[in-house]
């Protein structure tokens, strides 16, 4: 999407007027994902003043159409899609996109892709939310992180506390003694000179959990400006390369194990980083769910 501006304005206000489905906070999130260019240069600051005649460009991937949602699983009570980058997983946007008969069960960050669960009734939404809260749904993510990770398999455990804000969004950091308990298990799948591919299994469901733990081990997700400003890698990335890869849960008498294929931009980064393309057939770590 592109526009030639007709008058001077703040970038955030201009985009919000053009993208009526996005709030001011949503626009700032999109800017933080390096998806906006002004006169050919990436612009991340909402307060930037644009002048008459400026060229403003926004990635088309931020405006997914209904037909772009790949359906991974569907039955009479659930619909599970492969969320594209840029889709805001909020109840309001779910209603606007899918109509009144699908209900959002959980959220993924706007830049995160992968498995997103929608329920076909309010009661099923409540049932699925309870499974998430009771940690009866097993989740795994694929993450492309900065640098060469030396460990092969490990667990990070800490307590999360709020440390500030970035473009209106809360930032989290680990505290060794108090806060929200966070546990993430990691396995290295491939390693290169500039980047590594990890399988991450969060055993708790804290906001930004994998992103915080990855950054704190010195290998932030490529690219995640909320939690890292400098990177070893020179590979250009337009969003945090984090993908909700696997889900496993039982609903009724049916046990489901689902996987979502990687999006094209992550495949391209894996090629540029000389990382092997083979993904694990088993979407969870071998040691089992603790």
Give an overview in words:
With about 290 residues, the chain is an alpha+beta fold. It folds into 3 domains: about 1-60, RNA-binding S4 domain (Structural Genomics Hypothetical 15.5 Kd Protein In mrcA-pckA Intergenic Region, Chain A), CATH 3.10.290; about 65-135, Alpha-Beta Plaits (2-Layer Sandwich); about 140-270, Pseudouridine synthase. The protein is built from 6 helices and 17 strands. The protein has helices spanning about 10-20, 25-30, 90-100, 120-135, 210-215, 265-270, and strands at about 1-5, 10, 35-40, 40, 50, 55-60, 70-75, 80-85, 105, 115-120, 140-145, 155-165, 170-175, 180-190, 195-200, 240-250, 255-260. The strands form 3 sheets. Strands 7, 8, 9, 10, 11, 12, 13, 14, 15, 16 and 17 form an 11-stranded mixed sheet that branches. It has a 4-stranded antiparallel sheet with strand order 1-6-3-4, with no helix packed on it. The protein is globular, with a radius of gyration of 19 Å.
Summarize the SSE layout with pairings:
Layout: E1 2-4, E2 9-10, H1 11-18, H2 24-32, E3 36-38, E4 41-42, E5 49-50, E6 55-58, E7 70-74, E8 78-83, H3 91-98, E9 103-104, E10 113-119, H4 122-133, E11 138-146, E12 153-166, E13 169-175, E14 180-191, E15 195-202, H5 209-216, E16 242-251, E17 254-259, H6 264-272
Strand content: 35-45%
Query: What coarse outline follows from CA principal-axis ratios?
Result: globular
Q: How many H/I helices?
A: 6
The helicity comes to 10-25%
What is the tally of beta strands? 17
Uncertain parts:
60-67
Whole-number radius of gyration? 19 Å
Return the domain count: 3
Largest sheet: 11 strands, mixed
Question: Any guess at the CATH architecture of the largest domain?
Answer: 2-Layer Sandwich
Q: What is the CATH class name of the largest domain?
A: Alpha Beta
Q: Can you say what the CATH homologous superfamily of the largest domain is?
A: Pseudouridine synthase
């Amino acid at each position: 999407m592109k526009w030639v501006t007709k008058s001077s304005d703040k970038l955030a206000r201009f985009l919000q007027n053009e993208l009526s489905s996005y709030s001011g906070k949503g626009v700032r999130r999109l800017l933080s994902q390096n998806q906006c260019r002004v006169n050919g240069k990436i612009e991340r600051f909402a307060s930037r003043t644009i002048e008459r005649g400026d060229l403003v460009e926004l990635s088309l991937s931020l405006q997914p159409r209904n037909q772009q949602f790949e359906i991974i699983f569907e039955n009479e009570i659930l619909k599970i899609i492969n969320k594209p980058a840029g889709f805001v997983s909020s109840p309001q946007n779910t209603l606007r996109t899918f109509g009144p008969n699908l209900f959002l069960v959980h959220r993924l960050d706007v830049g995160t892709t992968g498995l997103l669960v929608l329920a076909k009734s309010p009661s099923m939404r409540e049932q699925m939310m309870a499974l998430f809260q009771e940690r009866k749904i097993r989740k795994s993510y694929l993450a492309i992180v900065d640098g060469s990770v030396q460990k092969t398999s490990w667990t990070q455990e800490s307590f999360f506390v709020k440390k500030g804000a970035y473009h209106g969004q809360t930032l989290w950091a680990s505290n060794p003694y108090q806060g929200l308990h966070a546990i993430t298990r990691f396995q290295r799948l491939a390693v290169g000179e500039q980047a590594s591919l990890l399988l991450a299994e969060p055993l708790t469901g804290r906001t930004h959990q994998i992103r915080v733990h990855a950054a704190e081990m010195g290998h932030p997700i490529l690219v995640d400006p909320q939690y890292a400003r400098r990177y070893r890698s020179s590979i250009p990335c337009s969003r945090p390369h984090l993908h909700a890869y696997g889900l496993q849960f039982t609903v009724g008498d049916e046990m489901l194990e689902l996987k979502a294929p990687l999006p094209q931009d992550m495949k391209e980064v894996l090629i540029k980083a000389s990382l092997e393309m083979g993904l694990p057939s088993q979407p969870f770590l071998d040691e089992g769910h603790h």
